[in-house]
Design goal:
Metallo-beta-lactamase, Chain A, about 260 residues, seven-stranded mixed β-sheet, globular, about 25% strand
Amino acid sequence: MNKIRFTFLGTGAADYPEDFGMAKNKFDKDVRRASCVLINNQFLIDCGPHVLESLKIKSCSPYKNTKIFITHTHSDHYNQKNIEDIVKKAHFPVKIWCRRDASIIKISDTEIIRMTEGKKYFFGDGFSVIATDANHDEKSFPQHYFFNFSGKKFFYACDGAWFLTRSYYLIKDAELDMIVFDTTCGDYLGDYRMAEHNSIPMIRNMLPSLRTINAVTSKTKIFLSHIAPSLHKSHKETCRIVKQDGMIPAYDGLDVFL
């Protein structure tokens, strides 16, 4: 089959700038928009305040995004106006996927899929997804996603700190091709956000265990996203810091092929 294309449309946390200045109409590795991933120009993970701008910069049509997966309802991940704009001009009916109890506003001509945790949903062509609850603000109805694209396995874990037990065992023996970690906090110890967000040392602690259970292997691409610029060094310096750990800091506009 053809390779699966993952496009990081945004890799930042909620501390994005009000004005992108010189980066308004282009991507800059040190200017991060709200985190969002586009898969094969069809599956959109999160639809925050910058998604339409990012799609335009990347020359991707927003109206082919017929499946929108909401990780949680915080405003940097869930923007009702932008979803409505996509729905109005979409080439096909749009399905919005979310946690079973999420406060998602119904939009005309859409279908809301309230996902049962641990249930596998199929799309055809060998594509499937499983949702699992995340360790984040419970009032935002957080969940992570485990995708399988004809044998290519991808776990998206933004937002959320560590993993819940059932998430940990969901990816046991998965031999993931790619994992994306929430990395809101930087390369330091001690942060009040540790119950909702990861730091680089927290991910360093997780990786050996994930390797022990065969979730992460030598083939797994390990990406960092949801990076808070105010809590991290520059992109170049962050790359240097995590290189020995086998981690790759994502940046806005990055394409990854599996």
